[in-house]
Design goal:
- The protein is an all-alpha fold.
- It has one domain.
- Helix 2 runs parallel beside helix 4.
- The protein starts with 6 loop residues before the first helix and ends with a helix.
């Protein structure tokens, strides 16, 4: 009995990663553009919800780049660079939580925005939300699993966990 996957499944597996990376990239670049032109709708600030912070947008760009590099089974430089970018995604989420838990401000949150107005009176202005940080740690770990065989078993379930976290946050804002 052959363990070859059906052709339709293989087509989906080749289509979804670049499509997800392109979607994240376009959204993140739109948010960064919104911050540069002071456009609330471009920043994702619609209604009373908080805008996406620039550090989150940059982390989405790094996540998209890692996904593009790691989408194939090949080895070599692409896997090493993809693994390094995945580690950067994890570091971004972890540093966010270290700041929340310790009360420290490493200044990472405002690096990309010269004008600090517009954070909306938040307790920690310019910092990504805690759920976003957790999701980046989870997604970064999933990406690292694509570059590292021992972690590969966890890779399929971790994006589902990150999606669940995102849905909970989205539902809580409605």
């Amino acid at each position: 009995m052959s363990s070859k996957l059906p052709d339709a499944y293989q087509q989906v597996c080749h289509f979804v990663p670049p499509a997800a990376a392109a979607t994240a990239l376009v959204a993140a670049l739109g948010v960064l553009r919104g911050w540069s032109i002071e456009g609330p709708a471009w920043r994702g600030q619609i209604g009373a919800t908080a805008p996406m912070m620039p550090i989150s947008a940059v982390t989405f760009i790094v996540t998209a780049a890692a996904l593009l590099l790691l989408r194939d089974e090949g080895r070599g430089a692409r896997m090493r660079w993809g693994g390094a970018l995945a580690a950067a995604v994890i570091a971004s989420g972890l540093l966010n939580h270290v700041q929340y838990l310790s009360g420290a401000d490493f200044g990472l949150d405002g690096l990309l925005v010269a004008n600090r107005a517009g954070a909306g009176g938040a307790a920690y202005p310019w910092r990504m939300a805690p759920g976003t940080g957790v999701s980046f740690v989870v997604l970064g770990t999933a990406l690292l699993g694509l570059a590292n065989r021992p972690l590969r078993r966890l890779t399929p379930s971790l994006p589902l966990l990150a999606g669940g976290i995102s849905w909970m946050v989205l539902i809580s804002t409605l």
